[in-house]
Amino acid sequence: MRPVILLCLLLAIGCDAAIDQFPANDVYALTLAHSRDVRTELAQRDVAEVIRSLFGTPESPVWPSEIFDGEAKSLVKSESLTAAAGPIFSDREGNNFGLFNKHCVACHGVSGSGAGPAAVFQNPYPRDFQAGVFKWKSTERSAKPTRDDLVGLLHRGVKGTGMPSFALVSEADVSALTDYLVYLSVRGEAERKLLAFAIDELGYDDSEDDSSEFLIEDADVHQIVGEIVESWLDASKRGVPVPKEVASNTDSIARGKDLFHGQIANCVGCHGPGGNGAAVTLDFDDWAKEYSSRIGLTPTNRDAMKPFRQAGALRPRQIKPRQLNQGVLRGAGDGKAIYRQISQGIAGTPMPSLTITKQESATGLTSDQVWDLVHYVQSLGSQPGDTLP
Ligand code: HEC
Ligand code: HEC
C-alpha cells in the first residue's frame, strides 16, 4: 500500500474512534519505576483520579480555573476546549467542532503523547506535548513558547517534517487548537510531575499491595499545577532579545564561515564542513533519551527498549544535525529565528547554546559574531546542495 493511502486510512481511524478517557502516561511511569526501582501502580491509580477530576476527559475536557488566580484562570478558554474536543461536526452557523480530532490526533495522539496512529512512519516523531518542551520558539531555551510562537507554528507547519501547515484553517479554529494544545501540555506535564512527586515524596512505593489510602493532598496538586501554568504565563517575559544586525555582506559571511569551523562555536563538529551534514554523530533527542540513555539503557538495544515499546513508546530514532546546505529550515527561518537558535540552542535536542560575551573572547561569541554566523548559515542555504529534492 502506498504510504499516503495508509496514512489516510490511519487518519480515518484516528478520527472516528471515540475515546472516553485520556490514556495514562505508562511510558513515563515505567521510566520512574525503572530509575527508582519502585512499583508505581498505586501512585498511578491515584494520580489518574486527580488528573481526571481536574481536567476531565477527551469528550468533555475541563480547564480547572477554580484552582487558579488571575491570568491563569483564562490561559485556556473553555469555549476553545468545546470546539477542539469531541466528535467532528459543524453547526448551522458554520462553527466547527472536534478540531483536534480532525487535524491533529492521528499524529499527536489523544493525550498529546506524540504517539498517534500515524506517528511510526515519521522522522522526527510528532511532538509529545506532555513533557512541556518545544523547539521552535522565540523564548529562552528552558521557557515555554509564546502564544504567537504557537500560532505562527500552526500557520507555517514544520518544513521537512510531517508537521503540516494549517494556514487554511480559520483564525478562530487555530486559536481554539492553540488553547487545546496548551491544555494537553499542562494536563500531561501535571500528570508527570504528580506521579514523580507521589513516588518520591509521598511514600507510595512502600504502600501495602492492597492499600486504598489516598495520599495526595489538594494543596500539593494546586502547587504543582500552578507552577506549570505559571511557566506558560511567563513565556512572554522570557523572549530572547535580538541585538541590532551587523551588515550582511561578504565580509560578514567570511567571518561567519571562520567561526562556524572554529574552536569556540565548533558548529562543524555536528553540522560538518560547510554544513554538509557529513559529521558523524550518534545522538538522540531528549524525548527518547528520557526512557533510554538517561536511565542507563541503550536506545538502540531492542530488548532493553521492549518494555517501553509495549507501554507505548516509539522506537528511539537518531537525531541528525541539520544539513544546512540544503536550505530547509524547520523553525521560522528568518534571521532573528536563526540568531535565537544559535544563541539558545534548540530545546529538546543536542544543539547547544552559546555564551554571549560583550568583548571577543576565547569562551564565547559577541552578538555581532552570532550575526556573522547567521549570515553564513543563510549563505549556505542559498547554494542548493547536490541532494536537494
Ligand atoms: C501528519 C502528522 C502531523 C499532524 C497532522 C500534526 N502534527 Fe504537529 N508535529 C508533527 C511532527 C512530525 C512534529 C515534530 C517537528 C519537529 O520536531 O521539528 C510536530 C510538532 C508539533 C509541535 C511542536 C513544535 C515545537 O516548537 O516543538 C506542535 C505544537 C504541534 N506539532 C502542534 C500540532 C497541532 C495543534 C496539530 C493539529 C492542528 C498538529 N500538530 C498536527 C506532526 C504532525
Ligand atoms: C552537538 C551538536 C550540534 C552543534 C555543536 C551545533 N548544532 Fe546546530 N543542530 C544540531 C541538531 C541535532 C539540529 C537539529 C534539531 C532539530 O531539528 O530537531 C541542529 C539544527 C540547527 C539549525 C536548523 C534550525 C532550523 O530552523 O531548522 C541551524 C541553523 C543550526 N543548527 C546552526 C548551528 C550553528 C550555527 C552552530 C554553531 C554555533 C551549531 N548549529 C552547532 C546539532 C548541533
Give the end-to-end Cα distance, rounded to a whole number of Å. Answer: 23 Å
Instruction: Write down how many β-strands occur, each being a DSSP E stretch of 2 or more residues.
Output: 2
Q: Numbering strands along the chain, what is their spatial order in the largest sheet?
A: 1-2
Bound molecules: heme C
Global morphology: globular
- Going by helix content, strand content and strand pairing, the class is mainly alpha
Kindly estimate the percentage of residues that lie in beta strands according to DSSP: under 5%
Radius of gyration: 22 Å
Q: How is the biggest beta sheet arranged?
A: 2 strands, antiparallel
Low-pLDDT runs: 384-389
* Average pLDDT rating: 93
Domains counted in the coordinates: how many? 2
* Estimated helix fraction: 40-55%
The number of distinct helices, counting runs of at least 4 residues, comes to: 15
Could you please describe the fold and organization of this structure?
One of its GO terms (molecular function) is electron transfer activity. This is Cytochrome c. It holds the Pfam family Cytochrom_C. Keywords: Heme, Iron, Metal-binding, Signal. Residues 1-17 form the signal peptide. This protein is an all-alpha fold and 389 residues long. The protein has 2 domains: 3-238, no CATH class; 241-281 and 321-389, Cytochrome Bc1 Complex, Chain D, domain 2 (Orthogonal Bundle). It has helices spanning 3-16, 26-36, 41-55, 78-84, 99-103, 105-108, 147-156, 171-201, 218-234, 250-261, 268-271, 286-290, 302-310, 335-344, 367-381, and strands at residues 89-90, 96-97. The chain has a two-stranded antiparallel ribbon. Helix 4 crosses helix 8 (171-201), helix 8 (171-201) packs across helix 9 (218-234) and helix 10 packs across helix 15 (367-381). One heme C is lined by residues 103-104, 106-108, 118, 122, 124, 126-127, 134-137, 145, 150, 153-154, 158, 161-164, 166, 177, 181, 330.
